[in-house]
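Sequence only, no structure available. Ideas?
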Amino acid sequence: MNYGDNLYIWQATDWPQWRYDLSKLAGPLANVSRAQGVLMGRLTDVGMALRDQASLAALTDDVVKTSEIEGEQFDVHSVRSSIARRLGVDIGALAPVDRHVEGVVDMVLDATGRCNAPLTPERLFGWHAALFPTGFSGLTRVQVGAWRDDAAGPMQVISGQGLRQRIHFEAPPATQLPAEVNSFIDWANASVPEPALIKAGLGHLWFVTLHPFDDGNGRIARAVGDLLLARADGSPQRFYSLSAQIQRERKDYYDVLERTQKGTLDVTEWLMWFLGALHRAVDSAQNTLDAVLVKTKFWQRWSGTPLNERQIKLLNRLLDGFDGKLTSSKWASIARCSPDTALRDINELIVLGALCKMPGGGRSTTYEIAD
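Reply:
I predicted one. C-alpha cells follow.
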C-alpha cells in the first residue's frame, strides 16, 4: 500500500495522473514497431485476398480467446462463419451461429472496424448489450447497457470461497462512475502526448480498473485496447490478436494487473508487460500468416480436382487447425455421413495424394494433410 490507508490506485490523491519511465519503454516500443513492420511487409506482398484471410484468422482468434479468458467456450467454426459473413470473405459453407457468438463478434468488429469513431457511453452500452443479449450472465441477471449500481455491494474481483476467499481488487464506487467514465472517454478521444501504443496499454488498464459494468468488463477492456491499437496501426484491419496472447499468458496477466492496481500510479511495469505481450502477439501472427499461405497453396494445387462437399469441409477443418487427430469416425460425425462413406471419402483423398495415413495409428488410424 503506497498511499497511506489507500489500497488501490484509483484512491490516490493524484488519480488518474499516470506515470511511466519512457526511457525503460523505448526498447520494447521499438521492438514492437519493428515486428509490426516485418509483418505488414509480408502482408503487402501477398495480395488482398490473402490479407482478408489473415485478418479473418486473427479476428476469429480474438473473439474466441477474449471469451475463453472469461471461461466461455465458443465454437471456432461458428465464430469464423459469423465474421466471414460480415466481412464478405468466401469460406465456402457457413456454420450455424448463435446470438452470444454474434454479440461478441458485433463488439469486436465495431471496436476495430470503426476504430476512428469516437468512444461514447452509448457505444460502450451497445457493446455491453451485445455481450448479454438475454439480460443474464449465466443464471444471474445483469444490468444491460447501464453502469453498475452496487446494489449488492461493492464491485470486487474475488477468488476462493469461505476462509480461503481472497479479494484481488475492488473497483471505484458506483456513485463515482459517471464522472470517472467521462474522464476516461475524454482522454481516449483526445490527442494526447503518449505514444499510440502506450495509450493502448493505458486505456486497457484504465477501463478494467473502473470496472463500470456488472459483468463483461474484461472483454470490453480488451475491445477498448483493440480500438486504440487499431488507431495506432492506422488501419481497421486486424492481423494479430492481443486477446489470444493474453489468454496464453493469463496468469501473468492477472498477476501484473493486480500488482499494478495495488501499486502507485507509476505503471511502467504494466506497460512493459503489455508491450511484451503485444510483441509476442505480432510474432504469433507470423505463424497465422504461414498457415494462411499453406492453405492457399493447397487449394491452388487441388482447385481443378473434383471433390465432394464433405471432402472440402474436412480438408478445410484440417487446414484451419483440427483439434486432436482426424479418424474416420470423427469424419463421419462432422460430415454427418455413414462410416463407410467417410472411409470412402478418405481413401479417395489418399489415392489422390491430398491426404495420408499417420504412422503408429494402432487400432484407430488417423489422417493428416499430405505434404
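The first helix runs from residue 22 to 46.
Hope that gets you unstuck.
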